[in-house]
Amino acid sequence: MKIVCFILSILVLSISISGCKENDDLPPVLTLTGAESVNHILNNVYNDDGAEAIDETDGNITKNIYIENSVNVNKIGEYTVIYHVVDQAGNEAIPVTRHVSIYNEGYIYSSQYNITETEIFTGNNMCNYNIMVAVDSFLNKRLVFSGFACDTGREVFVDFNDSLLLLPYQLIADSLSAVSVQGSGTINDTLMFLDYQLKNDSIKEFWNAEINRMK
């Protein structure tokens, strides 16, 4: 009889202790480290500042954070880094998000321009028209002209470095003949200047282009 009473006492004590145990139903709290929105230069390595996770029961569980990172540093655009964490009881924190904007440093030159081109050395031709200058989506410090070489529909790209402007060799016409341009010049806030060679097969022409930003 004493043995039975002892066993019953242990069971009652166990049930009592179990009944006093509180359920962990509070989720962890996630906090961003660093800014919520970040502007980042195209083609540069992106190092995220991360986040911190604190749980009332488990303490600091930052090491358990898992991340959804959509950032593509090689294409301009808007991206997100989303942080998630779950505590040992299975409670999931409210996710937090960092917004990352990948941009081309050439955006400061994006505008409408008036271009005047003058042939030198071999002729006396001239043309004047308006073009749009936009940034390249994949290469930093590369600009795209909507027209060039006296053709409003002839798209070319140029690269800049500080005040220097480069027109890399590129074919500019779909035809049986090889039409190409290449040259160099200068750039500032309102004006670009290029000396370039226009080559049609073996025929070379030499031109300069003055490209003024329009207000």
Write the layout of secondary structure elements.
Layout: H1 2-20, E1 29-32, E2 37-41, E3 51-55, E4 59-60, E5 66-69, E6 77-84, E7 96-103, E8 111-120, E9 126-135, E10 142-145, E11 156-161, E12 164-171, E13 179-187, E14 191-200, E15 203-213
Protein model, in words:
With 215 residues, this protein is mainly beta. It folds into two domains: 25-103, Immunoglobulin-like, CATH 2.60.40.10; 106-213, Beta Barrel (Lipocalin), CATH 2.40.128.420. It is 9% helix and 48% strand. It contains one helix and 15 strands; from the N terminus they run αβββββββββββββββ. It has one helix at residues 2-20, and strands at residues 29-32, 37-41, 51-55, 59-60, 66-69, 77-84, 96-103, 111-120, 126-135, 142-145, 156-161, 164-171, 179-187, 191-200, 203-213. The strands form three sheets. It has an eight-stranded antiparallel barrel with strand order 8-9-10-11-12-13-14-15. The protein is rod-shaped, with a radius of gyration of 32 Å. It starts with a helix and ends with a strand.
